Amino acid sequence: xxxALRNIAIIAHVDHGKTTLVDQLFRQSGTFRDNQRVxxxxxxxxxxxxxxxxxxxxxxxxxxxxxxxxxIVDTPGHADFGAEVERILSMVDGVxxxxxxxxxxxxxxxxxxxxxxxxxxxxxxxxxxxxRPDGRHVEVLDEVFDLFVALEADDEQLDFPVLYASGRNGYxxxxxxxxxxxxxxxxxxxxxxxxxxxxxxxxxxAMLATLLDRDNFLGRILTGRIExxxxxxxxxxxxxxxxxKQIEAGRATKVFAxxxxxxxxxxxxxxxxxxxxxxxxxxTVSNTLCAPEVSEPxxxxxxxxxxxxxxxxxxxxxxxxxxxxxxxxxVIRDRLEREAETNVAIRITESAERDxxxxxxxxxxxxxxxxxxxxxxGFELSxxxxxxxFRDGPDGREEPYETVVVDVDDxxxxxxVDKMAQRKAELTDMRPSGGGKTRIxxxxxxxxxxxxxxxxxxxxxxxxxxxxxxxxxxxxxxxIEGRQNGVLISMEQGEAQAYALNMIxxxxxxxxxxxxxxxxGMIIGENAKPQDMEVNPLKSKQLTNFRASGKDExxxxxxxxxxxLEQAIAYIQNDELVEVTxxxxxxxxxxxxxxxxxxxxxxxxx
Length: 606
What we know:
With 606 residues, the protein is an alpha+beta fold. The protein contains 15 helices and 36 strands. A hairpin with a 4-residue loop joins strand 35 (576-580) and strand 36. Helix 9 (364-376) packs across helix 14. The termini are far apart.
């Protein structure tokens, strides 16, 4: 029966049409009824994924076409979520690489594609958006071939089949000039090109847990592909870690298979099926779930270690509790512990500070996504500057390094090399990549990369592409210079006045506009000089009986610089915090009172 089953993963760059194509696969296989109201981009299930167009959570889905069940696994493309990629690809037997007919193969897809080819999976290439007027499918296929060669694909993988598709219009064809039809050719190619799982159904039950989820009623739910044997509801099972040590034993109280986007309960499942199991309380990702008789774990990649940590603390600003309803440390702790339970790359510890928690993760984006989700749920938090996690090595203190692959226009390469050298990065490779672009590869300490991405985009006028990948722990690189400029700090609490901001604007760049509520110790702008400066943004014009020669209407302020959450976190120094509420992102000094600030600054100098 397993010959009527195919497990595939879809790899695509942001906005190349992966989710739209999967929507059409659902519709044309009859997974959705014709009259069923279906959300656009069904696979991007949470609000943040829809807004940013990135896949954060890898989700299995399933379609049935002519008695053939096809399990489709979405893959996260960003290296911050890379801890999941290798395990997810162990569930599938083939991959579809989806590329835009105009943009072609993008470096971001290289990370997942490289992992897939390394595992020996056979790729199918789909050139999407073939009806774009600026499409260049011939060059795009050459780029894909070059990418596969660079990733050391074998001859069989290089002999990949190609389809030309328009996910939005719901057709695929081997003819690049086709402009109508159905996705039938894609279904047929999956059936003929992707091998069936071919696993032993008669052996003892064993599966590798690759995804972790939580349900309020069922508790911990572990998803993976059954590698051998059969699983029945109520069957005794146990969990082994990567070294074969038993973690816990229990029963499979519920077994779910996937039908479209839904998890549906089933009584039995067999080798090759992708299922979710409830019943265990401690087992996690990378553990082997198996029958009591099994003693050998399935080989699994270790979970990448967290390399970055931030302090999440209770918001203690004068405006605390005005915009959010979840402000107590107990509520914040519960929410963080819930996150750590399902997100294996995050670690939570109590901080030495009062009402504060250390949250360690894989990178700024991953922690930024967690903070953004929390503020949408009504939380108010104070967030510290990210710090890298050091460890003690045989030769002293070690810090995490990352491999940084940069693709830039030739004219900007000198600036990027110079900026990276200031951040203690070592140049390991530099070569032209065609089309007036240069590819530069660095080995850089993670510490030096905090906050660089925004500067990098400015330096390359938005055309540069940067990919980062955890490389190793290496020797500590010493002091790395931080932000060059000081900040403008409010001395008063109240509403900002245009008259005062007009005077302050000569000193630097403003972050606020007239009428905004400010408080003492809040950062309202960037000073043009390296020192911090306290200013009074509430000062208004003295009114007299005489008519002033200069009218207030003549004040014209430059629009303030607004920062996104990630930019704000990357911008602050160690003595500063980001205040995050459902409606606002404010920058502030850690100590709002100027005397206390000076006292702590002196203590740190000593």
